[in-house]
Design goal:
Nucleotidyltransferase, domain 5; 3 domains; about 15% strand; 5 strands; single chain
């Protein structure tokens, strides 16, 4: 079986995706191994399956493409859903609902109704929920993947992922962003009504003591974080922070990955960049801040130090953040970036193609 470069990239995306169940990833590996001209006996041993099973998935892929690697529903009785519809449900789940629906995220009922209208195939919400469980998808708990409309999306992804996987020799790569409006909440002091009767409901609001903005820079090579809490998020404070973040790397080329906020491109910032040509900005695609590694770290500090913390003042909150950064840096390790630019773009192409078909079919 001969595979195109796009087909190989799409299959590798399935193998490496954390959202794909292990059985489907194994089927994708079977196809890739076959394309490498490995004997079927060897493929069966590598995959831990029988020879007939290898033949099954190769024939399914040849006939149906990626959708053929998904499980056909068992015991469905009155509801036999084509593989192409299953594949489109999985693709659409990872995308924010169309604007005209007014939805912020998918529910199983809304997805079933959407697919029924778009594909002309009756699908129950029970089926959608079962499919989500089988593939580890929880759109009501996790944000969906929003497609970037940036015309330079592919070029920017290739540029930034290239920095992660193969940074220029001797250069430093910093992943930079701000986590804004972090609240100092005193969770030990709920504001309760002084008097109430059976018809009243106690409120459990917590004392709020102000907010701070965390500016942070992650050294992609070492995992170390430099952070600073500032009261206002603006271009002047960003430039002050940036100067401090790059100062330890004097004499080296510094590549800074950051998003497209206006505070990152003020005239003062651009003037400073011109005067410091050893520092170069690499902007993430619009609507794709997920590619910025500092966002991973923000998620970690939020879960481990901020979300359930009790802070009697902004000063206490800032102290907690500083202590956490010191603790992190004492045993810092870099994040392991495994997805290549081609694999990321392959996933995007799969989603874009599926969404386009859904939209086109719905418009008919």
């Amino acid at each position: 079986m001969e595979l195109t470069a796009d087909e190989r990239a799409e299959l590798r995306a399935l193998v490496n995706s954390p959202d794909v169940v292990a059985t489907v990833a194994t089927r994708a590996r079977i196809v890739l191994w076959q394309a490498e001209k490995r004997p079927k006996k060897e493929i069966a041993e590598l995959a831990g399956v029988s020879r007939p099973t290898v033949d099954l998935w190769l024939s399914r892929y040849e006939a149906e493409g990626l959708g053929g690697l998904l499980d056909h529903p068992r015991g469905a009785g009155r509801e036999q859903v084509p593989a192409r519809v299953r594949a489109r449900i999985l693709a659409a789940t990872r995308v924010s609902p169309p604007a005209e629906t007014g939805l912020s995220h998918w529910s199983s009922r809304e997805m079933a109704a959407w697919i029924t209208r778009a594909e002309g195939v009756s699908v129950s919400h029970h089926y959608v929920a079962k499919l989500w469980r089988e593939n580890g998808l929880r759109p009501h708990r996790h944000g969906t993947f929003k497609l970037s409309r940036d015309p330079e999306f592919a070029d920017k992804v290739a540029d930034i992922v290239g920095l992660y996987l193969s940074p220029p020799g001797g250069a430093v790569v910093l992943s930079v962003d701000e986590k804004t409006q972090i609240q100092a909440l005193d969770r030990t002091q709920p504001l309760l009504p002084m008097t109430f009767d059976a018809s009243e409901q106690r409120t459990h609001d917590y004392r709020r003591h102000g907010t701070t903005n965390l500016f942070a820079a992650l050294n992609v090579a070492t995992g170390e974080v430099y952070g600073e809490c500032l009261p206002v998020r603006d271009g002047a404070n960003f430039l002050t922070f940036l100067k401090k973040a790059v100062k330890p790397h004097a004499g080296k080329k510094v590549h800074v990955v950051l998003d497209n906020l206006s505070t990152h491109t003020t005239p003062e910032v651009m003037t400073w960049l011109q005067a410091n040509p050893h520092v170069r900005f690499h902007h993430t695609p619009k609507g794709s801040s997920w590619i910025n590694q500092i966002e991973i770290w923000f998620g970690i500090i939020t879960r481990q130090a901020i979300r359930r913390g009790t802070f009697s003042s902004v000063k206490v909150l800032i102290g907690q953040i500083r202590d956490y950064i010191d603790h992190w840096n004492a045993d810092a390790k870099p994040f392991t970036w495994t997805a290549s630019a081609d694999e990321i773009l392959a996933k995007v192409r799969v989603v874009q193609a599926s969404v386009k078909k859904l939209v086109d079919n719905n418009a008919k």
